[in-house]
Each structure stands twice: as C-alpha cells, then as structure tokens.
C-alpha cells in the first residue's frame, strides 16, 4: 500500500513536472553564445543582412538596411479580406501585416493581431531580392522600387489583387516584383520578373528570407510558451528546427529540393515555399543592429542565365498567417508539422480531430471539451472500474490494515509482509489503483498541447466568466472547483497507513489548485469534468461493494 501511494504521488506530480519543464525551456535563462566571424572568401562585398553567397555573383549593396523612419511616409498600403499590409518601396519588403480575423487580445477584439512588424521589439519582416554578375547591379531588399499607386484594396466582387513594384537601371535591365493576394487565402504568390533588354546574357539568382528579432511581451498571461524560431523542411531531412541559439552557434547551409523555410511562433507563422523540382540553398544568419540581434532564415536559387532581349520569372509562394491545421496540410507537404504537439503527436492529432468534430456539432469549444472528456472517460470506463473496485475493497480492509499496523508498529519488514499476505488472501492487487492514472497521463499531456498549440481554440469563449479557454481562469473559480473535486476523491480512497503519506496526499489538492491556476482554463475544465465523472463512478462502485452488491 505504501508503494502504491508513492507511485500515485509520483504519477500526479509527474504531469506537472513535464508541463513545467516546457516553461523552463522557453522562459528560463538562456546562455549567450559568442558568434565567430565568418571567413568565407568570395568576390563580393556584403551587407549585414545579405545571404551568405560564395560564388562569383555580386551581393546586395554594401549598406545597412534603411530604417523604417526614413520610408514610413512612403509605405504602400494594401488591404484584403484577411490582411492589412504595409509594403516598403525599399526592396518591396513586407514590413507590417495585421491579420483581420484575429484580435491582438481577447478583451480587445477591434485591435487586430500584428504578425509582421518592422520595428523592435518583436520585429518580423519578409524580404526578397536578386543577385547579378559582379558588373551587373540588380535590386536587393535595399533597392528602391516604384509603384503606380500607394494604396490597394480588394473590393467586393474581386477574387484577387495584384501589387506591382518596378525597378530599372540605365543599362537596360528591368525588374518587376509582383504580390498576388487571393480572397480567403493566407498564401501570397510572389514573382520577380527579370527583363533583359541588353545584348548580353544576364546571370542572376533570386533569394527570399525571413528576418526577425526575439519574441517578447506576447500573451503574458500564458504559463507556458511554445517554440519560437526558424524551421525548415525537406523530403529527406523532414521537419527540422533551427533555434536562435543554434543559429548563433552554427549557420545553416544545405541544398534542398521540394522543401520550405519558415519562422514560427505561438499560433502563427510565415513561410517561403519555392516551386517543386527546383533546388534551393537554405541558409541562416545572425546580425546585430542597434544592439538587437536579428535572426534570418532564407533560401536562394541556382544561377539562371537570361538571354539578351528576353525575360525570366522567379516564382514563390509566401504563407503568412495562423497555423490552421487543415489549411497548412493543403498548402505544402510537411507544412502542417509547424503545429508541434511534441512527442505525443500520435495521441494529440486524433484528440484534435475529435475535438474539432465535436466543435462543429456543438458550436462551442467548451462544450466540445466536456463531451470529449465524457468520451475519454467512457473509453477508460472498464479500466477505471477495476481501479475503483480495488480501492473499494482496500477501503473495506482499512480496519484490518490498521490492526496489522498497530500489531507490528515500526517493524516495516514484518508490516509489509503481513499486508502482502492480506492482499493475497483477499485477492486484491494494490497496483490496480494506479493503472488508470498511468494510462491517462499521456492523454492529459496530449490534450494540454492541443489546447496550447491549436490556433482554432485561440480566444475561444465558453460560458459566463470563462471567455478564453486558452488563458487561465481570471477569477480562479475553475481551479478552486478542481481542487475541491480532488479533495472529495481522496475521501473516497482508502486512507494510507503511513501518517506521513496521508499528510502528503492532503496537500496535493492545494498544490494542484495553485498550479492549475496558471494553466489554460480549457485544460482545467477537462480535468475538473474528469474528476467529477470519476467521483460519480467511484462513489457508485464503492457504495455497491460496501453493501455487498458488487461482484468481484
């Protein structure tokens, strides 16, 4: 019995430890790693945020990126049904994006969530450009483009909107950068058309990159954060993370066909998706501007030769938006892996699938969680029944166990031997009480990651004061109900023979109440409903056995 109680305590506290360890990983102190200067030799000059090219192709202009203050009045305004966008004429950089279907905070629905931002903190921008031969200047993400107008809007009846930016020089080379936005789509088609009006062939390659600073001051109410950083994917490499610390220690330089690169954060992401069948070199770089580290993941194409009096078009797709699981799966292979459920993905994905179906049925994520809890409880009903029968039978043995303890006192060896003989005689296995908890721990943790990672549940209201299932209960009412339910459960269990263990068990509801006060209220809702269902089942079985009705 002593060992059984210890196992139960370890199992319960283990849940909290696994979740808390995620918090430590994301919010704990981070060691700063010194960055060694690169020693690559090439025929290029290099701007601080240029791709690390090493072939005989010229780099961008050897100037720092122009600050947003110098071009703020010239930003190109674009509005669609999903986006409010600001594009800088310098490089055609997408400087700012607000997602019109998502609020910045649950209590301020009119303030839209800004995913891309041109200034620190939380700077996050999308850049692209071209490289030409050493004697052929081509536009980089620092070059000045022109446009026909400074404001574009997707109007009623239109399904698509194209924004064109123009660059040319005196040598007869022109570049047209186009962004095509489609109604209802978070995927933007971006093309860079190179027009060679000279009498000589033009060697050129295109690059596209995502640049951001570290994420700060977002959703302060959350107790745990998910991964923020760069990722890339390839058919052979599969899904790979390249954290900010890893980018400082070692740069990425790998050629991948049919892959993609991205910067991801909680609920949202931006990704460059190149055309299929075209090899791309994926790279990373860390720069420091005004004392702020900026992290870059990018890609560049193989060199293309554009014949005289001809043109060539580089085409890419850019995904900018929420990590909607159905949407990501349709955009590109492996893109859905950005919704990271961790090592319990195999359990979490079916849980989310079922939860989503229940949401479509009931129209509320809170009721979906409650029905999901009931279904999970039914799935484990027989297992729980075995556990509660074991506990009820042990509860009946409490007077005899107490007598044994009084008889042998502090003689632990003889006490345990006598208890084991009693269990054997009465055909009771104390470990049966632990089995359901061990089985349900992976389900609980998987549901935790579903609630934490699924943007579909972001800011989802339930009833009354529970207006956001992905944030903690603001009034701590639900955690308190959960703590009371744990205390009631303990009263239904047989008391431990060891007074020290009894004191520890009595503190568990208090400890769990404190911890759950910081957890998403959707998770606390699941745990509370599960406890209430367990109390009902355990009370029925215990009452039946004590009345001699139950069969065992």
From TrEMBL:
Main subcellular localisation: membrane
GO molecular function (one): membrane insertase activity
Bilayer topology: Multi-pass membrane protein
Domain of life, source organism: Bacteria
Sequence ranges assigned to domain Membrane insertase YidC N-terminal in this UniProt record: 76-354
Pfam families named among the record's database cross-references: 60KD_IMP, YidC_periplas
Record-annotated Membrane insertase YidC/Oxa/ALB C-terminal domain positions: 365-542
Gene3D superfamilies reported for this sequence: 2.70.98.90
PANTHER family: CYTOCHROME C OXIDASE ASSEMBLY PROTEIN COX18, MITOCHONDRIAL, OXA1
UniProt protein name: Membrane protein insertase YidC
Gene: yidC
């Amino acid at each position: 019995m002593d060992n059984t109680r210890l196992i139960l305590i370890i199992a319960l506290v283990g849940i909290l430890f696994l979740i808390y360890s995620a918090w430590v990983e994301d919010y704990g102190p981070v060691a700063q790693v010194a960055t060694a200067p690169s020693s690559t030799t090439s025929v290029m000059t290099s701007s601080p945020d240029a791709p690390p090219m090493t072939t005989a192709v010229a780099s961008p202009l050897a100037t720092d990126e122009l600050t947003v203050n110098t071009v703020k009045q010239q930003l190109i305004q674009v509005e669609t049904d999903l986006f409010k966008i600001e594009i800088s004429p310098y490089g055609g950089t997408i400087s700012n994006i607000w997602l019109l279907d998502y609020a910045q905070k649950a209590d301020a629905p009119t303030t839209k969530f800004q995913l891309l931002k041109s200034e620190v903190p939380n700077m996050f921008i999308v850049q692209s450009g071209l490289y030409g031969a050493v004697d052929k200047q081509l536009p980089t993400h620092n070059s000045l483009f022109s446009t026909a107008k400074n404001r574009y809007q997707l109007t009623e009846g239109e399904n698509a909107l194209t924004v064109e930016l123009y660059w040319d020089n005196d040598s007869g080379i022109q570049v047209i950068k186009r962004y095509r936005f489609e109604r209802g789509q978070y995927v933007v088609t971006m093309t860079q058309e190179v027009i060679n009006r000279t009498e000589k062939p033009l060697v050129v390659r295109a690059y596209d990159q995502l640049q951001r600073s570290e994420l700060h001051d977002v959703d302060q109410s959350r107790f745990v954060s998910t991964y923020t950083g760069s990722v890339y994917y390839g058919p052979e490499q599969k899904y790979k993370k390249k954290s900010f610390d890893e980018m400082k220690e070692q740069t990425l330089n790998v050629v991948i066909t049919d892959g993609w690169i991205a910067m991801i954060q909680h609920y949202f992401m931006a990704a460059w998706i190149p055309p299929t069948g075209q090899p791309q070199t994926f790279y990373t770089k860390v720069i420091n501007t005004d004392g702020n580290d900026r992290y870059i993941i990018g890609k560049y194409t193989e060199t293309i030769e554009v014949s005289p009096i001809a043109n060539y078009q580089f085409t890419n797709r850019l995904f900018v938006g929420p990590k909607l699981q159905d949407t990501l799966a349709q955009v590109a292979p492996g893109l859905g892996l950005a919704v990271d459920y961790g090592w319990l993905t195999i359990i979490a994905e079916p849980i989310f699938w079922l939860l989503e179906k229940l949401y479509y049925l009931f129209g509320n994520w809170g009721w979906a969680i409650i029905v999901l809890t009931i279904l999970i409880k039914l799935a484990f009903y027989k297992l729980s029944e075995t556990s509660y029968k074991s506990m009820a039978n042990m509860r009946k043995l409490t007077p005899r166990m107490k007598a044994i303890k009084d008889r042998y006192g502090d003689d632990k060896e003889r006490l345990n031997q006598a208890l084991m003989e009693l269990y054997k005689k009465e055909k009771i296995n104390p470990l049966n009480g632990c089995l359901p908890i061990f089985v349900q721990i992976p389900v609980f943790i998987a549901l935790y990651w579903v609630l934490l990672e699924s943007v579909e549940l972001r800011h989802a209201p339930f009833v009354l004061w529970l207006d956001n299932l992905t944030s903690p209960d603001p009034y701590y009412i639900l955690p308190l109900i959960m703590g009371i339910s744990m205390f009631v459960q303990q009263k239904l269990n047989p008391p431990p023979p060891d007074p020290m263990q009894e004191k520890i068990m009595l503190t568990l509801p208090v400890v769990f109440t404190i911890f759950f006060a910081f957890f998403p209220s959707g998770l606390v809702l699941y745990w509370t409903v599960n406890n209430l269902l367990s109390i009902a089942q355990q009370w029925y079985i215990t009452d039946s056995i004590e009345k001699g009705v139950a069969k065992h």
